[in-house]
């Protein structure tokens, strides 16, 4: 029985789709093909009209007839989202990029051939894109509306929108058909409008700090700057294999060597790894580098930038995120990794007498630690297992072990650690920063060790010799910072998944 109902529904849908195509064919035969229209002059948007209604509103005279002031004529365009036909007069709801507004359509008040035009209007479908000219007024029920003098079909919708009351709720369908998601769910459109504003405000902030925006290659021979697997492809013109970049770092540092001093890039990077609520194979990374400063300078910069952007975009520096109130505006807590592990586990790195002692201490907390782990590796594991989940308010964790920081400068007072920090919000890492390693001899040693480890895992890893050559010419003391821009957008839009802030997230193809 259920299968029979499903088949009957499919027949009904196919019939409705057929009717829409028949309507289009009829219009084309009568010389009214909407797809032949190349432009439509839009003077206003719906929200502008409603927010400034006193400027646009036309009054009624003593007989109750609308006084059509030519100076108040508006022209809008958008998609029909609702339509009610009631004999000699009808209503529809038109949605544009800013919102929606009700349109009143009377049979005897449309254009030069009102009866013919009203007949065409009655045949229009929900989903059709129309242009409307008319006069704003308030209905007897108090709704701000437009009294139409002209309704022009600009594009015929040959598909059927989801039923308005239930909306589009299927998550998989929303991601695959984002255009439909944007039509049906206004809050989704607001998320991506806010995303655009966030990127714009980041640029304004960095430009105001004297940074220069640059662009660096996406196709590279050596995908360095991060511990991630790259996508590989073949460059036919030169008959050689190349990779998609996994980071922006190494090219931006070359520019600091070249004397540009303050540079940043906002761009796509590609990592051939898993997909979850925080990761997508291609995502937007923002990296910046500033000569003659260190990781403390980067700490101050990221705090100030987050506060500035939040205030500009959200109007507040305390934002709701997944049930927590995130206080971006308050001074961020700063802790070394050693201090954080000691606070949340009671284990003290400075008391460990050897690597073996570190492993033994960690196992008292039932941590899964390899017997061959170094003290630094043990510290990292303890942090990830016991500390990260506790960091809800913005927190900077600094001084990372050298084992997992191949591009950061060692601490002069303790060479087992580096001048590196990451900052965490709502138990998630949002960005990473260093006092950049500018010693080419030390860098070669770390690259060599890193490459050997990757080769043991079967990767065809190579040392970036040109980058080392650049360092040999001299990289000044430099602070660098990278942040996943998508995660920042998630924070300011209270989005649970990275897919909610990517217009077209990576999806597994539908099976045939």
Please tell me about this protein's structure.
This protein is α+β, with helices and mostly antiparallel strands and 512 residues long. Helices cover 35% and strands 25% of the residues. It contains 15 helices and 19 strands. Strands 6, 10, 11, 14, 15, 16, 17, 18 and 19 form a 9-stranded mixed beta sheet that branches. A 5-stranded mixed barrel has the order 1-2-3-5-4. It is elongated and about 95 Å long. The protein starts with a helix and ends in a 19-residue tail after the last helix. 30% of the residues are buried. The mean pLDDT is 93.
Mean pLDDT: 93
Number of helices: 15
Taken from the alpha-carbon principal axes, the silhouette is: elongated
| DSSP strand tally | 19
How far apart the termini lie comes to 26 Å
Q: Percent range for helical residues?
A: 25-40%
Summarize the structure.
By secondary structure, the protein is α+β, with helices and mostly antiparallel strands.
Lay out the secondary structure:
Elements: H1 2-29, H2 46-51, H3 53-56, E1 74-86, E2 89-95, E3 100-106, H4 114-123, E4 129-138, E5 144-155, H5 171-176, H6 178-184, H7 186-208, E6 212-213, E7 219-220, E8 232-235, E9 240-244, H8 249-257, E10 262-270, E11 282-291, H9 295-314, E12 318-321, E13 324-327, E14 333-336, H10 337-345, H11 355-363, H12 375-387, E15 395-401, E16 410-411, E17 414-425, E18 428-435, H13 440-456, H14 465-474, E19 478-484, H15 485-493
Parallel strand pairs: 3-5, 6-10, 14-15
Antiparallel strand pairs: 1-2, 1-4, 2-3, 4-5, 7-9, 8-9, 10-11, 11-19, 12-13, 15-17, 16-17, 17-18, 18-19
Helix pairs in contact: 6-7, 7-9, 7-15, 8-14, 10-12, 11-12
